[in-house]
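User: quick one, fold this
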Amino acid sequence: MEDSELLKVRLGKIADLKQAGIELYPNDIRPQNTTSQIIEDFGAEEAASLSGLTQKFSIAGRLMALRNFGKAAFIKIQDRKGQIQCYIAKNIVGEKAYATFKKLDVGDILYISGKLFRTKTDELTIEAHELRLVAKAIRPLPEKWHGLTDIETRYRQRHLDLISNPLVRKVFEKRSRIIRLIRQFMENHDFLEVETPMMQPRAGGAMARPFKTHHNALNQDFYLRIAPELYLKRLVTGGMERVYEINKNFRNEGISTFHNPEFTMLEFYCSYKTYEDLMSFTEELITFVAADIFAGMKFNYLGTEIDLTPPWRRISVKEALLQITRMEPAALEDQARALAFARKAGCEVKQTDSLGKILMAIFDETVEKNLVQPTFVTHYPVEVSPLSRRSASDPEFTDRFELYIYGKEIANAFSELNDPSDQRERFMQQLKEKETGDEEAHEMDEDYINTLEYAMPPTAGEGIGIDRLVMLFTDSASIRDVILFPLLRTK
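Assistant:
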């Protein structure tokens, strides 16, 4: 009811402005300055120095606060760079402009042009010589919009979140900076940025449940990609030895503080490297970004200090299970013993699950949360690594690692399987898993096997979760805080 009354008041003001011939949404506004530019250049100037300036300044932004004194007012204007105070006086801007100003509300967008001065409280202020309405806000900002805290409103109406919470804007500015630094690092190491299909005839490149769609003209089902892996490795086979992509993946899975069905990944491939080379490369990449963001190797995430100083801990899946869960060594080799341990630990496992799957279920349930400082976990079972090269020392495990920080997977990498015969066998095993009800099992991809038959050079590849990395580097508790428009149930 209160919102309805406020809306009526605003619509009345709009009618008055129209009757006075005031354009509500002009398109000839050209501000020459930003708030931060003015503050940076003149924030240290004293009042006497400012009074000697003949230069005029012009800004455009949203009216965020208003203190009215009858024939004069102080307001706060917010643009993309910050806020600055402005002084509006009837005897300076003129009666017509001041009459327009009296019809304005918090939330409207204004153009202000004038000179700089300091108030009695020593605040840098623009004395308005010209004032124009740029865009009239029909709807009022929500109640208590200063530091909007309602989570539902923040995520569903990100525009209000950005207006109300300057720190939110900083998070997404930092996100952009992180991605820019990653691109710079990859270019410095001779990687070529590419784009691969978002819609794919079969879901491949990872073990995950896909989103399915239909192309009418081709009368064919397609899948939103769960990973770009198989396409990027086609490029490697074609001679593009160092490629990367930063783009969206889609997985039809649950939503949590660390999972969104649509997420951003960096995925890259480098010929004549191994997963061990990529561990060092990953350290270099992430510390390169951290050095710029934090000017150092240490930062706090949710109250815990994280130290990125290399070298990072390296431990195999088996070693982690022995050290953290206190499993008996014999249970690592015996399906029945591993199954009994998993059920005792509360893991969701089936009687028919392979030993490798059971070990990873135990790992996910008991080990991950203990990996707070940067840790490379290596040598994953073949059953959960259908695209990874087998370990020469233990063929039941693969030359693969995952990077964990604060108990969460940040990166996944491995020496790529480039033997087409072995790859076919892995796909066949995945098909069997799918037939038993595993919706995340990998599909057969004859075209990809055909690609490998033309010989792919020895290659290592990696995927890094951009959203999760941004979460760490912005001290954000939820992935929704670092995605501008997270997926939500429709109201």
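User: anything notable?
Assistant: Residues 2-140 form a domain with the OB fold (Dihydrolipoamide Acetyltransferase, E2P) fold (CATH 2.40.50.140).
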